[in-house]
Design a protein that fits this description.
about 375 residues, mainly alpha, RIB43A-like with coiled-coils protein, single chain, flagellum, about 0% strand
């Protein structure tokens, strides 16, 4: 609604009207509690559905229109092609009729029945006519039929020649195949004979190898029995030597001599139990002596450590006393220097007073007196 006296074409007025319409629409939505709760714009949704349906209908109409245009175009192209085909067919038929009419002789033409006088006339020699007689033109082929007949005969001869060549080639291939088959049969026969000879020779060699293996196995069994018997004899002799021979036995007393504590080196078999016991006792005594020595060394080290600790403490006390005396001496020196500095200041002050002079009470009392 535009107020009276206001120009409705003004941009600001239209903007205000649009704003007012939006506000009114918003107020309507706010007054509807259901729409306010669910937050859905039913009118907007319906408008969207209607708009989509309208767009779908428009698209369908456009598709139908495009299909109809395509169909019309296809029909037009078919009609044009049919007309062109019919025109080409008519032109070809006309051309065939023209060529057929030109190839007719004078007596075969339609004009021969009309002009009866030409039957009694001799045939016209077209080759002897000039161009002005309109009987012969440049580019005409008067010997076309003869040439076609010769070409047909030539094609027939070529075809027969090709057939003969094919038959000869097939016969040669058959002969080659037969010769190849005969050769392969001969080769197969030779191969079979060679294989038979090979199998026979192989069987013979296998028999020889078998006999050799059997003989070798028998020889190995015989050698094994002999080796086993020899090993048994050697074991028995070694056992007897171990039990009876003084050289092989492990008795340590066989190396003992009449001289005390002396043995035969070539018969020595180790220490006797008494000697081994003596060695063990000697080792124990050595271990005990070594342990005692280690204990004594440890005690001496501990004593030396205690002495060193005592000496360290004495040195520390001496250093402490020396440091204390040094500090006392330093303090005394500082006090002396301080006292000397004070005395020097006092002396300088007195010297300054003496150098400048000072009028005291005695100065005035000294007038009229004499030192004599």
């Amino acid at each position: 609604m535009v107020l009276p006296g206001v120009n409705g074409e003004d941009v600001d007025v239209r903007r205000a009207e649009a704003r007012r319409a939006r506000d009114q629409e918003r107020v309507k939505k706010l007054h509807d509690g259901r729409l306010r709760n669910i937050g859905a714009d039913i009118v907007g949704v319906k408008n969207q559905i209607a708009e989509k349906q309208q767009l779908a209908q428009q698209q369908a109409v456009e598709d139908d229109k495009q299909f109809q245009e395509q169909e019309d175009l296809r029909r037009y192209l078919i009609r044009v092609e049919a007309e062109e085909t019919l025109a080409r067919r008519d032109e070809a038929a006309k051309l065939r009729r023209d060529w057929a009419a030109q190839s007719l002789s004078r007596h075969e033409r339609k004009e021969a029945d009309i002009a009866r006088s030409i039957k009694d006339q001799p045939p016209l020699n077209v080759d002897a006519c000039n161009i002005s007689s309109a009987q012969k033109f440049d580019g005409e082929d008067r010997g076309r039929h003869e040439r076609h007949r010769l070409q047909a005969a030539q094609c027939r001869d070529w075809t027969q020649l090709q057939l003969q060549e094919r038959q000869q080639r097939a016969q040669a291939e058959a002969d080659d195949a037969r010769a190849y088959a005969d050769t392969m049969a001969h080769v197969s026969r030779l191969q079979h004979e060679a294989e038979t000879d090979y199998e026979r020779e192989k069987t013979k060699q296998a028999l020889e190898v078998r006999r050799f293996n059997e003989a070798l196995a028998a020889q190995q069994r015989h050698d094994g029995l002999r080796a086993k018997a020899r090993t048994h004899d050697m074991d028995q002799s070694e056992i007897c030597a171990t039990l009876t021979s003084a050289l092989v036995s492990e008795n340590p007393l066989q190396a003992k001599l009449d001289v005390g504590h002396r043995v035969r080196v070539d018969h020595w078999k180790g220490l006797s139990p008494e000697e081994a016991k003596a060695v063990v006792l000697s080792n124990e005594r050595l271990l005990a002596a070594n342990q005692a020595k280690r204990d004594a060394d440890k005690e001496a080290e501990m004593e030396e450590a205690r002495r060193q600790e005592q000496l360290r403490r004495q040195m520390a006390e001496y250093e402490h006393d020396a440091e204390k005396r040094r500090v006392y001496h330093t303090l005394e020196v500082q006090q002396t220097l301080k006292r000397q500095a004070e005395e020097a200041k006092e002396r300088e002050r007195r010297q300054k007073d003496l150098s400048q002079g000072k009028i005291e009470k005695g100065f005035f009392n000294s007038f009229g007196t004499s030192f004599r």
